[in-house]
Structures are given as structure tokens and as C-alpha cells.
From TrEMBL:
Organism field: Arthrobacter woluwensis
UniProt EC number: 3.4.-.-
Superkingdom of source: Bacteria
UniProtKB keywords: Covalent protein-DNA linkage, DNA damage, DNA-binding, Hydrolase, Lyase, Protease
Name of the protein this chain belongs to: Abasic site processing protein
Pfam family, one: SRAP
GO molecular function, one term: single-stranded DNA binding
SUPFAM superfamilies found in the cross-reference section: BB1717-like
GO biological process terms on file: protein-DNA covalent cross-linking repair; proteolysis
Coiled coil feature spans: none
Amino acid sequence: MAQSAEDLAAEFEADHFAEDRPFPPSWNIPPTSDVPIVLERLVDGELRRRLHIAHWGLVPRWAKDESVGVRSFNARSETAAEKPTFRSALKARRCAVPAEGYFEWLKGTGAAKQPFYVHPADGSLLAFAGLYEWWRDPGKEEGAPDAWLLSTSILTMAAPAPDHEVPVLAELGRLHDRLPLALGRDSLAEWLNPSEHDGAGLLEAVRAGGHEQASHWVLDRADPAVGNVRNNSPALLRESGSLF
């Protein structure tokens, strides 16, 4: 994510960047890192859309410590409404996770793997369907500036069939068996609205259009150096043709 917080707020029509810390550009963001999220909350009876920075790995309110987030950076859309970690957030704490693209690894012969950078063909921003939670750290004093942790998870869905008639969807199906679930701009407002409590219904509607959203993506070979999180530059997004 190379865009500034100000540009993201403008892109998603958020009226506020609700942080007092900078969000530096990054081209290699692993789970458990900080990521931008867009959410809506009622403030003095008015619905306000805001940009926050969240820990990528959802920590539910009932967790004893934040290590739970290591296992919950993604949420399967098929079961999120039933899982204790995600079902409460699905009802009223839904968010969008902006991204310029994402990395996925193709398994080769033996231990060989090739990373690919998946992104919209037209250079537009992705808005992944996400969930968020505020978690109170019981080890922190009341009123401590770091007493509360904001965390998020990205919803995923089954990838298309590897023999799909749409070439890019077939490539995505051969690349991995899961896809991050992308929101269309027409469904973004409804997804974010905390007054809409039928999270399972909203999720079903978003998932129904997930493959259509993915049909506008392209796959480019990325630099294997992306496998080391200490490597972080635009060079990781090296383009060199399609998947197969």
C-alpha cells in the first residue's frame, strides 16, 4: 500500500483519519502487521465513515490475550457467521480493507514456489470485505493510551474452478484454492453500515459477486524476495507476464 492516509480517506469518502500516528507506505505487509481499514460508526446519532489503522489478525473481545490474532487474519466466508471468533463482528463491526493488490504463492515442483502479485487490471484500489473488533488488554491500566487494540480480519471465499471459462479466473483457481473477498463499490455502503444487523445475509450477497469482482484482476510474477518481510520496495511488484 503506497497511498497516503489522506488519499485513502478521500478515495473512500471517509471524513476522518482517526489516528495520531503516520501510516507509511509499504509493499510487503504480512499478517500481524498494521493495515488501513475503513469503517462506519454512529457518532452523536450520525453515521460517520472513518479511516483507522488496525492490527491484521482479529482479536475477539473475549480473548485473554492478543495471540489469538495470529490464527485469525483471514475468516472463511462460508463459516464466519458460526465461528465464535467472527460471528459477533459480522453482525455490526464490518469494515473494508483497502489494498492495491496482494501476493499469492504458486507451488512448483518439490519445494519450489513462485510468488504472484494479484491486482486490478485498471490500477484501481481493492476493498476487501473485513471484520473488526476492539479488544481491551487486561494487563494495561485503565486510561492507558495502548489499553485498547483495534484488529481486523479479511474474509475469503473459494477460488474459481481451475478450468473456468474466464482465463483470469482459471488462473486464480490454479494459483490457490481461496480468494480474498472483494467488495464492489455499489455494495460498500451497505456492508459498512452498522445498523444493518443481518451480517450473514450481507455476506452471502457479497460472496455471490466475488468471482465477478475477481474477473477484473491480473496476475504478475513477483520477486521471490517478497518472502522476506524485511524486503519492502516497489521492485517486489515486478511484472513479467501472465501466470501460465
